[in-house]
Amino acid sequence: MIDQTTIVPAHRLVQRFPQWVAADERPGYSGFLVNPEHLVEIVRSLRDEMGYDYLSSITGVDYLPEGKLEVVYHFYKTTGGSGLNLKVQVSRKEAVVPSLVPLYSGANFQEREIWDLLGIHFVGHPDLRRILTWEGFHGHPLRKDWKEPFFEEETKPFKSRWPEGQVQRIEDKNPFKDNLQYPNEFDPETWIPHSEELLYSGLKKIKKTDDLHTDQVIINLGPQHPSTHGVFRMVVVMDGETIVDLRPVMGYLHRNHEKIAERNTFLQNMPFTDRLDYICSMSNNFGYALAVEKLMGVKPPERAEYIRVIMAELTRVMNHFIAVGFLLNDLGAFFTPVLYALEERELILDVFEEVSGSRMMCNYFRFGGLARDFPEGSEEKMRRLVFDRLPRKIDEMDEFLTKNDIILGRCEGVGVITAEQAIANSASGPVLRASGVPYDLRRADPYSIYDRFDFDVAVRFHGDIYDRYLVRMDEMRQSVRILQQAVRDLPKGPIMSGKPQYQVRVPAGESYGRVEGPKGELGFYVISTGKPNPWRYHVRAPSLINLTSLADMSRNEKIADVVTILGSIDIVLGEVDR
Amino acid sequence: MIGFGIFRGLWTTFRHLIMTYVEDLRKGKRGYYTDEGIEMRRNTDVEGIFTIQYPEEKLPVPEEFRYLPFLVYEEGENGDKDLRCTSCGICAKVCPPQCIWIVRTNDPETNKPIPQPAEFYIDVDICMSCGFCAEYCPFDAIKMDHDYEIASYDRIREHIYDIKKLSRPLSYYASIRPANFHREETARTEKEAHRAAAKKPVS
């Protein structure tokens, strides 16, 4: 099954570097295998000569039976089109790969994550520390030979749960009665924790040469903070009120979603994807369903495609309402805009509840279509929302907020990121489009039936907080436009191609399914070996990668603006930490 | 002029304030603590207050709403409960957090499995309410419930549900999910008619 990442432009790659690049011949795979020592040179020529300026995702894979670790890179062009993927293979004993951070600064957090979870060392990375687990963690969780404390069996369904099932709680099995295990030579009595020296010493301080002897203070905008959109920590160095440097620290909500997914079957993963970006569950389902459907080679029927687009666009409207509302909350308008936004969200959630059964954890999409069809009356409700209520309320939010002098004064010119910086940082979604790069996946690399709808891509050119707010308002209007066309053209028919089955047969191969989620490009990299469980499952989380730009946006801004800048990037910790 | 933007925004808030009282006067006494009042407040053309005052007023739960599963039994003539579950174990296999335990026993004489669960446990703390068990049960024996008010004080003793706590009559299922019930019953009767017609000897 040929993936979207085709081989056409990269014939040039093999011609240019014949002894270092070879096509990936494994069945179901695509892309190129690259010699690790010459990786930087090859990637530089990709970026400068062949125009692949956007590094979308870096994934690490553990092939235990072959004794290899692999790093997979997905490159795209900001002018659109399907991309290119490169792979580097190293042995498990000595996993050393050159880092791409000097070329693409967006590789920063993703390489740290691969070091943390898989143990591949990146040479040339400016700050290779653990990112999702705490700095004293022992072991690399995503390796196939690492067992979690509540380990029962390699893959689900667990035999111990049925049919001769004995009722027991999993925490009773673990000797510590909790999700805890100690490494072999560890003695909790004599261990002295080393403080976070590496983190604090990496912060830059500027040298001041005036007579006033001032100190630069390090402040933790800690994980317990009402305005950080979840458990997220920022360590800032401040000179007075101005920020000199900023480091984000995440991993407080890390649940090792990817390891859980390797134990689940493909279908059982669907409710877990709801819990990634927990506000936009339909979008996450969409991305995962697309990735697995690419592997299986099935296409959903027409009605299912239209309903998927309707759900995805309703999710986008809902998310942007929340984003705008909470941005205003961060600015200090305590909760009135939030509640105005949440009122609209409640109406959309009522639609989701009628259709899928649950407001937030929808679990509605299946491989080949949807779980169930609309019940009576919900199409009418959707019609009333889309044609009457939502356009009216978006205009009301616009009138309420856009020309407000306080917002203009606090948001214009604050938190600026230029287009080149945004592309190098792999930013996506409204953050990228507010800086002047009109890259929207629904236009650049259309998936599902988005090529049938007539809509514009929202772009603004200043790259500040105000432009991100305006891009979100524009996108809401464009989403309503798509919704009106989809609801008008919704055909009748089946909603599932093939019989619904709980043991889906997924042939061996890899696929990278990406959707334009409300926060950015949400990608799912799935590798299957033909068994009922995926071999590797990686989520390219837009919130995590957009956070690479946070430091660039916040230098020389005031401390009061950092909270607003974070609010304008619109993160959800479920996605950042997985 | 500076401040004009703020004034326009405040005008929106002020309009909502006025509309709240206008709508309240229009609704009068029947606007609160009645079903009609709840419908007026969750409609798409509400302009004023839209709060539903739980626990005195409860939002009507739509049919597809899923919370925790329950086992369906058909009531026999003598009041005996005939569980539809045959302990095939598909629900336990599809459950993503694996919260279902089933004990299946064999008939001591014929050594064939008895199509009734000897024991059936669901750990309600682990259940994600995803609905896969109900979706993939081939016998329509386990369905998703609507009741979400199940808070208790003791997790250890009360949060593993056994067969007694999980069973509910078919009439309850018909009352909470009428459209689904109707669809399944028509499918069942058609299948019975089909089977009866196939068994009829050709004369």
Shape of chain A: globular
Unreliable residue stretches of chain B: none
Measured by DSSP, the beta-strand proportion of chain A falls in: 15-25%
Mean pLDDT of chain B: 86
Find the CATH superfamily of the largest domain in chain A. Answer: Cytochrome-c3 Hydrogenase, chain B
Which structural category do the helix and sheet elements of chain A fall into? alpha+beta
Write down how many β-strands of chain A occur, each being a DSSP E stretch of 2 or more residues.
15
Return the string of H and E elements of chain B.
Answer: HHEEHEEHEHEHEHH
What's the architecture of the largest domain in chain A in CATH terms? Answer: Orthogonal Bundle
What is the CATH C-level name of the largest domain in chain B?
Alpha Beta
Q: What is the mean pLDDT of chain A?
A: 87
Return the CATH class of the largest domain in chain A.
Answer: Mainly Alpha
- Largest contact between protein chains? A-B, 53 and 45 residues
CATH topology of the largest domain in chain A: Cytochrome-c3 Hydrogenase, chain B
Termini distance of chain A?
29 Å
Q: For the report, how would you describe the main beta sheet of chain A?
A: 5 strands, mixed
Oligomer class: heterodimer
**Shape category of chain B:** elongated
Q: Roughly how many Å apart are the termini of chain B?
A: 96 Å
Strands ordered across the widest β-sheet of chain A: 1-2-5-4-3
Instruction: Please tell me how large the radius of gyration of chain A is.
Output: 24 Å
